[in-house]
Amino acid sequence: MEHITLLLAIVVVTALVFDFTNGFHDTANAMATTISTGALKPKAAVAMSAALNLVGAFLSVEVAKTISGGIINEKGIRTEVIFAALVGAILWNLVTWLLGLPSSSSHALFGGLIGAAVMSAGWSSVNGSTVVTKVLLPAVAAPIVAGVASMLATRLTYRINRNTDEKATAKGYRAGQIASAGLVSLAHGTNDAQKTMGIITLALVTGGVLHPGANPPMWVIVSAGMAIAMGTYLGGWRIIRTMGKGLTELAPPQGFAAQSGAATVILASSHLGFSLSTTQVCSGSVMGAGLGRKGGVVRWSTATRMFIAWGLTLPAAGLVGAGAEFLTGQGTWGVVLVAILLIAGSGFIWKLSRRQPVDHNDVTATATPAESPAEPAGVVTTAIAAVTPPPTVAAVAADLTATIPAPAPVAPADPARPATV
């Protein structure tokens, strides 16, 4: 085995930087609804999420194996390819964070990795079947499954509690939200921290430090867990505001249903080794919960912007990754230039974000009109809201009683008039 070179060390550090951006980019997945409904204070919410992300990083390595030995062929891939892929993923994460869009950090990483690998070794370097079965199909199915599950759970919740006082049950649902948010944080650490573990393991394989198919070393697991936990604690307040207030207004029962559905889908996919986007799952759950409450409105203008960002993530990160790989292929000066461009681009995006800063003090404020314009219920929302459960027997009897007219009153007989036969 070879020793870790300077380039490999740079790649490992860059991967941990990506993991850090993944943490603050995806804090909204676990805590946006909990913060928006008032179940937890913003600072307490991100601290809890950070701790559970760290714990979740130690629960499994199945997703890490998918990335380190499934998406691309390790043979013939240079360490510079991993560096270029991370550059594309980090820049896309920062751009979407600046815009407050909950895009997929996972797909940014996959896009950068695929683009850099294709630029370096051609399309044969990508395992197309793995990309389709473990990346693309889960990307389409997971948010739909989570959304439908959350919508049905929300409808069932309101159906069960239709005769109870909403204020009396709100406290219990807030407690349930805290528990389900913790489960989402644990699931996020299990799924997303492993992606960085996988990319570092892949870099170590390309550098000759590990043999192909090796599991992530313990120091990789610990460092990836710490990086995503620190990023989570920083809090991606812009995206938290979009997911908590920009998509729909959620009551505690909806927040509980949304987070429970998301956690179930994420944990199941992690067990199967599917590297899905936790952002897409949680966004789908939030929209499903919004549609599940009668009269709820999903802001489709915000959702449309989010869908566009989802569709652009893979190709955009892929193009940046391919461009970065083209430069790194020119030699040492190309690697240095890419590093300078990454630092300069990150600094420029951060400077732009300071023009309209968002922090924990105003994260629960309603989004500005430009971010989330007010809109009436759309066709989809209206159609789903119109679908109601079949009426009970008591309700049908009450309706029939109300529709049958009462008999006309009979006037009393006049004693002065003789009765006729």
Question: How would you portray this structure in words?
Answer:
Helix content is 71%, strand content 0%. The model is unreliable at 367-397 (pLDDT under 50). Helix 6 packs antiparallel against helix 10. The chain is built from 15 helices and no strands. The chain has 421 residues and is an all-alpha fold.
Helix content: over 70%
Note poorly predicted spans.
367-397
Number of helical regions = 15
So what's the oligomer here?
Answer: single chain
Strand content: under 5%
- Give a quick account of the main beta sheet: strands, pairing sense, barrel closure: none
Order of helices and strands: HHHHHHHHHHHHHHH
Q: Over all CA atoms, what is the radius of gyration?
A: 27 Å
First-last Cα distance: 121 Å
Kindly state the number of beta strands: 0
Helix and strand composition category: mainly alpha
Mean pLDDT: 76
The shape, in one word, is globular
Quick recap of the structure?
With 421 residues, the protein is mainly alpha-helical.
